[in-house]
Each structure stands twice: as structure tokens, then as C-alpha cells.
Amino acid sequence: MTYLNQFDLSLWLMCDSYYQQHQTLCLQLQDEHQVNVNLLLLSLWLDKQGYLLTPTDWSQIKDEVHHWEERVLLPYRKLRKLSKNGLIEAEYQQMLEVELMLERKSQALILHKLRQLPHEGTSSNLNVFLNLYRLDASEYQQLAA
Questions:
Q1: pLDDT mean values, one per 10 residues, the chain (145 residues)
Q2: What pTM did the predictor assign?
Q3: Which one, 76, 85, 128, 131, has least CB within 10 Å?
């Protein structure tokens, strides 16, 4: 089986498991450093697969996903957060569901780009990815555990 065949829903199910283990840290990185959590989780999964991407590859993925998210997901997320106190719980949950749908769209964009890239990297994906945000990966090694 090639890696391309493995990049499907099962990847995101595993990433969801990583997220559940490290949710607080993931949200902290997202809120304080604008780290894309989907890409962070992907870097962990790819490391476990031994599928290393180059810094250029990571930069391309990050830029393409950010461009889409900046136009769609991030404004919606901001609206949801601003609306929280003015909505009943059921309405707020509906907004969360829409945001999750937009997250899945981001994941589809990531997979599309990933399928186009060779795995020719020489360093940990987590290290390379966090370096894009000028973060020292040694401070976040608990993610890789």
C-alpha cells in the first residue's frame, strides 16, 4: 500500500485521537501563535509514518491552507466566538457544527496538496512545521510522545 492510499479519513481519525490527548496545548498554540492545528496534527502523524516533508513543502501547504482559511474559516470562527454570549446553547452548537464542517474542508485541501508532494524531507515534520511559526520544537516534544 502506498502512502497516497493511506491519506484518507483514517488519517484524520488518528489526528483526532492526538488532538484529544493534547487539546489544551493545541488550542494554546492556535490562540497564541496562530498555529494551524490540522497541520500540527498532520505533522505528528506523518512523523509516525516516517513520511518526511521538506521545509519548502510545509511552507507551501501552510500558505495554501492559510489562504483559504483566512477567507472562510477564521472569520467564521471569530463570529462564533463573538456570538457565544448572545446565543442559546443549541444555536451555539449549530455554529460549532458548521465550524467543524469548515475544518473538514480544510482537511480535504491539505490531503489534496499532500498527495502532490514527494516525501524527501530529512528532519522531523514537527520540528520543521513549528519552525515555520518560529517556535522551538524542543518545548513541545510532549506532542510527539
A1: 53 85 94 93 90 94 92 94 94 94 87 86 94 93 83
A2: 0.82
A3: 85
